[in-house]
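=== RUN LOG ===
request id: a7f3
mode: sequence -> structure
chains: 1
length: 538
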Amino acid sequence: MNKKIGSVGSLFLAVGCVFFPQHNVLAAPSPVNFTVSMNEAVNVSGCPSNCPRIAITVGGLARYASYSAGSGTSSLTFSYTPTVGDLDLDGVTLSSPVDLNGGSISDLNGNAISNLTFTVPNSSGIKIDYPSISLDFMNDRYTSSGSVYTDLPTFLGAVAGTFSRSTTATYYDASGQLQTAAANAPRFNYDPSTLQKLGLIIEEASTNYVLNSQFTGAAVGVPPPTITVSSGGAGITANVSAVGTHNGENYMEVTFTGTSAAAGTIYPAINFIANNTTAAATGEIWTESLHVITYSGTSPQGFNMELGELDSSKNFLGATYASLSTGGYLRATRTLSNANTAYIRFMIYSTLTNGQSINRTIRFSVPQLEKFSYQTSYIPTTGTTKTRGKEDLTVPVGGWFNAAAGTLYTKAYNGGDRSVAGLSALQTDSNNRITLIRTTTLGIEHLVNVGGVTQAQKTISGNGDYLANSGCVAYEINNVIGSVNGSLTTNDTSANIPSITKMLIGSWGAGGYLNGHVQSVKYYPQRAQDAQVQLLTQ
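=== RESULT ===
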C-alpha cells in the first residue's frame, strides 16, 4: 500500500507501508520501497554505481534507499534493503533532500531538477528486525544470514548445530496429549491445562523415584506393585475402582467408602513409595508432583498430597502438603530440615475419627518424586527408578557472528527452578562467556567473563515462576548494556570481550540448565543502540 505523506516544491514522497513487528523472525526482508512523485516525467542517470538515494537512519546507523525504478516517468521508486543486523523497533527516520550521490535527476529535455527537498514523512511504522541468526521456537521458524528454515533439525544441519539428549522424554502436544520424544529429538511443549504453547524444553538430567508411575499391573480391585492403597482402619474400604488412560496419561482411580469404627484417628491413604524405600538426608530438597484428574464424593476431611520426612524407624518428622481439593497438576517442594531424617515419603491421605463417614473417589496420574527444588517433565516408570538425560543445544560460531560486537536476545518461560540457570550464552568455556542468566532470586543477569574475570555484570528483577522473561545484552569493548522486560541496565564502560566459539541455548555450559522453556533467541552482529536494546525486551 502506498500513500502520499509529504511534499515540498515539486516532490511528493510516498512510502510502501512495510511494518516489521518487534519480535517477528525474519530471513532476508523484502526491500522497503519509497515513491517520489514529481510534477513531470524525469530521467535518472548514474546507476548502478552512482544511483540517487534517500538517507535513512536505522537504529542509529546510516542506511540508504537507492533509486530502483521509474526513469522516464513522474514516479520514482527508491528501495532500502535491510542489512543483516539492522534493528529499529521505533521506526526508521528519513532525511531530506534526495542525495544525487554522483548521479542526476533531470527533466526529459535534460534540465537538472534543482529542488530535491521534501517534507520528511512519519515513518515510525517502518520497523526493522533482522537478526543474523534467529530461533523462534513458538512459530517453528529459524533463520541464519538470510536463509529461513521451518524446523529445528534442518536449521541445525545448516549451521552445524547439535541437539542432544541420551534418553526418550515426554511432552504435551497442542491438544494436551502426553507424548514421548525419541532420544536426541527436541520437545516443543504445551500447557496441558490451557493448551498454551510454552516453547522448547531444555532440562538437566532428573530421576523419578516413584517406582511405578505408570501403574503397571494395576486392575480393578488390584493396586499395582510398589503402590499401597490403605483403608487406614476398621470400617473403611479402599479399592482401585478404575484404571485407564486420560490424554495419554495412565491413570488409577481409588475409592474410599464406609464409616470409621476405629477407636482413634485413622488415615485412609495411597502411598506411592514404601516408607523405607527412598533414602534422604537433612538439607536435601525434594519435589513431588501429581495430576489429580477428578476428585469427587464426600468426606469430613479433604485429602492432601504429602511430601514427608521419616526417621530410620519410619517415624514421621514433618511434611509439606498440597490440597487435592482444587485438582489439576499439583506440586510440593520441601527442604528436609530434621537431623534424624532417613527416608522420604510421597502419599495422598485423609484424616478420619471414630464414626466419621467417607465416600470419596480420586482419579490421578503421572506421580513423580525428584531430588530437585522444582518439578521437571514427567518421567514414566514401570517398576524401577528412571532417569531422563540432560538436553544440550549448541550452535558453533559462523558467518552470522561478529567477534568484536553483538547483541544477544532471549525470551524464556520459567519452569519454577530457583537455581542459577542459563537462558543463553555465547562462550568458549565457563571462564570466557557472555551470558544471560536467571538467578536464584528470579532476576535476569547479563554476565561477561574473560579468563574467569568478570568484565560486566548487571541484574534486573524478572517475572516469577511459570512466567516468561525477555532479556538482552549488547556488547562491544568498554560498552556493555542489558535490558530485562523493558527495563534498561546502566552501562559498563570498562569491559573486555572474550573469544567466543559457540552459542548455548537454555544453559550456560557448566550446569545451569534452564529447566524450563526457551521461546526465542536472536543474535545481531552489532552492538545495538541502547534504545533498541530496551525496546527489544518490551
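=== NOTES ===
The mean pLDDT is 92.
DSSP finds two helices and 43 strands in the chain.
=== END ===
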